[in-house]
Amino acid sequence: MMLGLWLQVAGAIAPPPEPRRIVAVRSSAAVVVDGRLDDPVWRLAPVAGGWRQNDPDQGAPATAATEARIAFDADNLYVAFVAHDSVGAPPPRVRNLQRDFRFDENDVVAVVFDAFADQRTGQIFQTTAAGNQRDAQFLTGLGIDQEWDVPWRVRTTVSAQEWTAEMAIPWSSLRYPDGGRPWRINFYRGLRRRDELSSWAPVPRGISVVRTDFAGVVEGLEPPRSRTPLQLQPYLRVQSGGPAAVPLERRDWEAGGEVKWQPSVSTVVDVTVNTDFAQAEVDRQVVNLTRFSPFFPERRPFFLENRALFTAGIEGRLQPFFSRRIGLGDNGEPVPLLYGGRAIRRTPASSAGLLLVRQGASETHAASDVGVVRGSVNLGSRSRGGALLVGRHDQAHDASARWHGTVALDGFSQLTPTLDLSGTLASTRRSVSGGDGYAGHISLSQSASYLQGDLTAEFVSAGFVPEAGFVSRQDYAQVSSNAFLDLRPDWLPTTVRSLQPYLYGSLVRQASTRGFLEAQIQASPLSLRWQNAASADLGVEFNWQRLDGPFTFVPGVGSGPGTYAYRRWTASVSGNPAQAVAWSAFASTGPYFSGRLTTIESDVKWSPDPRLAMRTSYTANRLGSFDSTRTVATTHLLAAELRLALSPQRQLATFYQVNTAARRGSLNVRLSWELAPLSFLYVIYNGNRAVDGLAAARRPSEDSQLTVKLAYLFRR
């Protein structure tokens, strides 16, 4: 019945039979990129107008008019936007000046290119009213590489009733075939004060605006023959300090870098030597009160690029390959990366990737080599099949070598414009006992205007051990489903946009014995979203859990073996994210195994100006009355962040966090100056110390480092 409903809803949405069209104009003179649009070419370029809303009023004209134009010369592709607004409307909202900003927190304009016109691949360029840059590339069925960065320029200007943006994107930063068909293109805008999303080529609500099967067509482009640029980005790093055993006076000099070569429009080769990630964001700590491994996302630039191609399985639960297992220990401590290489080939018919990395030895990890081979073949117009092979060879400390292998097959099919089917089947083998096993999943997901959800079945055997992958738990089989409705009846108050009830259910059994492990039902019958994006939600959770042995949540507090059934209540509320002070809060309470758990979370952001942004988040967990004892324990997790910026190219970010469950406090200060496109000077300070409570230091800093790093991009 549910499948029939999904198919019925999915069939109601389809791309337009005839796409919209825009003509690009060649510029006879160099375009001055200053955000003023006073160059002669902009008076000649046709206007892409008549934008339509994606949300909130699907298909209706955008409440604030937007115009886009496109031009080009021998070196660059130019895109210009004029974003109008009502008389007396507040100025456009920009929360901070960081690169790769959050789309939903800012006033944004963007362009999407599908240069191969295959409705599968594309590149996205976004900017805020303050000139922040965000770029990404995508491949349908494999996801979006939001961390992909290429050199391009943008400048903006803001006046009383409009703001303008002018982009210059070098041809060498774009992927396109020589002599191909006219490109697919779309423009879209996020109007923050109304929480409105509109686009030039209409896209239905529930469908991503980057989907190029709904995009228009750009005519008149005359790109030069695709170039094969060579990029060299060496770095020099000076570091002072280190662990407590290392005197602060010690200064380490390191040099290395990366080379990127594009022998053809379809192929990119990267080589890295003595890889360094000093500038990468630090991990956000968590208080883990579950029995399963927490998931920390990848944050290192080299592994973030083209991450989607090497992804298979379910992120955060079942991943045959997870790059964070390279160069980082189980506790996040760095392991030296001596050298590595990556080759990517993407064509309209297929995608392939090869990754090889040599990891040095540390006190806790043996030297190892990791290799990944990935292939994906397009099947028909909306399907693909792929294979992934992961190998790891460890040189153990006792001089005995060990090897580990993982092979996975995966597939994706877009059954209708809103209904997707995906699956993975994986196996691991090791030269030591205990590492031979299987895992897999199959998922049916729906994304339509008023119904989103999925139905997923997954399993992991007891012997499935992906040494270069990630699983949250082993020896389980799970069936889960969720449904999210976006209802907009006429009887809702005009200040309320939608009623969004939510239902989730899961059943987990032990794969080896088929015995019951746990089940959960989450329901949120009352969930409201206001027109300004504020929200409120009340929910309930029903849990059934089986513990085969004692489990300790925090030192001194735990539950013994047994079967537990309990109900918990949840509530969340958030304010208008467009205001200078944006906030959200969450609370849950009720029984938890043999005791009680109350959790309170808060998040406050203050940004009176894009050049100044502060954020504080706090989580408290109170555990008590476990196993009929009066033991009470409370954990605190506090994080504070300050960002100061003179411009999008010069920023200072400070991040401090304290985790009382881990008795650890850490401070990260990062000054970044973009000297030229993608060329940076960094000054980074990292300090860690053991703490009692939220502020009191138990002893002096255990680990204090000051790093200065210069990374300069040379591009031919």
Description:
- The protein is mostly beta strands and about 725 residues long.
- The protein has a domain at about 1-220: Immunoglobulin-like (Sandwich).
- The chain has 3 helices and 45 strands.
- It has a 24-stranded antiparallel β-barrel.
- Residues about 1-10 and about 245-250 have low confidence and may be disordered.
Secondary structure: elements and pairs:
Layout: H1 2-10, E1 21-23, E2 25-26, H2 40-44, E3 52-55, E4 66-72, E5 76-84, E6 108-114, E7 121-128, E8 133-139, E9 143-145, E10 153-158, E11 162-170, E12 184-191, E13 196-199, E14 216-219, E15 230-243, E16 251-264, E17 267-275, H3 301-304, E18 318-319, E19 337-346, E20 350-359, E21 367-379, E22 383-395, E23 401-416, E24 419-430, E25 437-447, E26 451-460, E27 470-471, E28 476-485, E29 496-499, E30 502-509, E31 516-530, E32 535-547, E33 551-554, E34 557-559, E35 562-574, E36 581-592, E37 595-609, E38 612-624, E39 632-647, E40 650-659, E41 664-676, E42 679-692, E43 696-697, E44 703-711, E45 714-715
Parallel strand pairs: 1-14, 2-4
Antiparallel strand pairs: 3-13, 4-5, 5-11, 6-7, 6-12, 7-8, 8-9, 10-11, 12-13, 12-14, 15-16, 15-44, 15-45, 16-17, 17-19, 18-27, 19-20, 20-21, 21-22, 22-23, 23-24, 24-25, 25-26, 26-28, 28-30, 29-31, 30-31, 31-32, 32-35, 33-34, 35-36, 36-37, 37-38, 38-39, 39-40, 40-41, 41-42, 42-43, 42-44
